[in-house]
Design brief:
Length: 277
């Protein structure tokens, strides 16, 4: 019995070390990586040894994100980019190529929420178009122009950050819900279209993720969740960026090599719990 224990333990240690070193010196691009879930993923991939590139249209947030991670002895690069603009995306990928010559993982996280929430008859279609341009057009443009770099990697991966709003809605949130529903469909469309290029494509659909402490300094706040907020989640709490980051690390690694075209819902079980008022 003692012999069996000592035989298995080194394997466990080896597997654990592989998890922490898999991304060492590998190039990982995270759009919308300056705040929120994106910043949480940037930190986690940097901890795993990756050469992390943060792309974000908010220059102030991007610079603060670099400073924040540098204080943790983590190195990341920031490049300003509006992912809805094709020329900016092309320039972004050109810079990534000049620095790394390869891209091992593209995480399409950049997204904006509805700037207007109201009845359908009052919806400004310019608002709808802007949300879809960032949340849906952006991931497609990034995949398109990152592809030559991804093809240089041995096991490339794309991860789209969707939302449970792709499957459920609150009233009058048309642009955001539509954009995330489209991103879910784009995920499997890319997965089956990029098989010859050996690129795996998956999505994560986060639920309620508290990002108050992961914003730029001027917008940070201390979360205060009620008992009801926590209890509507079967796990008993609201999510945090680390919950998404750990799953992202797995889905972009070789450990997920048999997974493509899938969407993983990470919401503490909230979308499977029936709630009656």
């Amino acid at each position: 019995m003692s012999y069996t224990y000592h035989l298995i333990l080194p394997n466990r240690i080896q597997e654990q070390n592989m998890t922490h070193t898999y991304f060492k010196n590998k190039a990982v691009l995270i759009t919308g990586g300056a705040q929120g879930i994106g910043l949480g993923m940037a930190q986690r991939f940097a901890e795993a040894g990756a050469n992390v590139i943060i792309a974000d249209q908010d220059k102030e947030a991007g610079e603060q994100a670099v400073q924040r991670l540098e204080r943790q002895k983590l190195e990341v690069t920031f490049i300003a980019c509006d992912v809805s603009q094709e020329q900016e995306v092309k320039a972004l990928m050109q810079q990534v190529g000049e620095r790394h010559q390869v891209l091992h993982a593209l995480l399409n996280n950049a997204g904006i929420a509805d700037p207007f929430v109201g009845p359908l008859q009052e919806l400004d279609m310019a608002v709808f178009d802007r949300v879809l341009a960032v949340n849906l057009r952006g991931p497609l443009l990034c995949a398109k122009h990152a592809l030559p770099l991804l093809q240089q990697a041995e096991h490339p991966a794309i991860l789209n950050i969707s939302s449970t709003r792709a499957f459920m809605s609150e009233p009058n949130t048309f642009p955001y819900s539509a954009s995330k529903g489209g991103l879910e469909a784009l995920t499997h469309a890319l997965a089956v279209s990029l098989t010859q290029e050996r690129v795996r494509v998956n999505a994560i659909a986060p639920g309620w993720i508290e990002t108050g402490e992961w914003q730029k300094e001027s917008e940070q706040y201390q979360p205060n969740h009620s008992k009801e907020d926590k209890e509507q989640h079967p796990v008993g709490r609201v999510g945090v960026p680390q919950d998404i980051a750990e799953a992202a690390l797995f889905l972009c690694s070789d450990k997920a090599g048999f997974i493509t075209g899938q969407s993983l819902t990470i919401d503490g079980g909230m979308t499977v719990k029936m709630i009656y008022k």
